[in-house]
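Check out one such.
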Amino acid sequence: MKRSELKRKVQTVLGLISPEALGITLPHEHLICDGTTWFREPAEATERKWVRHPVGIDILWWLRYHPFQNYDDLQLLDEDVIVDELLRYKAYGGNSVVELTVRGMVPDHLAVARIARLTGLNIIMGTGYYVEASYPKDAGVSQKSVEEIAEEFVKDIFEGFQNTGVRAGLIGELGCSWPCTENEKKVLRAGAIAQQKTGACINVHPGQHEDAAMEHVKLLDKAGADISRVIMSHIDRAVREPKHRIELAETGCVLEYDLFGREGYYPPHFRVVDIPNDAARINEILELADRGFEKQIVISQDVYNKSALCRYGGWGYAHILRDAVPVMKLKGMPEKLIHTIMVENPKRLFTFL
């Protein structure tokens, strides 16, 4: 495939579609993934009995306040379950989903293609590397040049992942720690080069520090990335100072509130204790829109664990449409703004230039 064939198109796991076909889009989700790189053994002996316990209603009370401490919870590996969960999203009017499981989270490109066929949803899949702690043993990122890594991303977009025939539709999420490691910086630079060669947008997973998102944007800008086509994920845990959100928006990047459904708790060892609930997220989005940044906002749920699924007592992929949009309307968010955030902004970002 050539870049000219991608221009003004959206590339899903089943092929090219017109941007107008995207409709309501979740820009940051995980369908099939292994997030056990985040697993953290509890320090207390009595807590360790829950570590290998299967996710179920009997331990949901514990999981809600011990994220990343149950091995089973961090694995989404059942296609049938995901199909059922996504059909709830479709039933509420959802059309498209962006699957950001990349190297380090064990992506399964063929499984995602099967899920797309069974659900009838447009699914776009990202290419990249997650945080360095998750790199596959044979990844060899330290030995590769920036150009070699960029070529991997370009190949995933133009030719497809390995021999699957499934092609990537964006670059990311590119994982960063804090402080950002040299290999992670290399991957960001590679993303900028791959963007220049393909016309794709970039999604970044920022490190756990208030200054991380801005640092990553500056690095990408210096590397030649089109910042207006860079999505900064996890704003609702990464950039908590209002003035910093404004400064970040002023760079031209897109701010992604993607933790909808996670109601105000985050493990203290990750720095952030006070993350917003959905009502507060909506307030922040309204504040950004009032300042003229409405075309730089997207929203999602970042479902990566079992206990976020409806089957296990969670909110699921339909949560924004089912639960959050009605609150947006109650808070006076205009229909036009909701449409801009959920339809127009994703359509612009996931269309190749």
Observations:
- The longest strand covers residues 122-127.
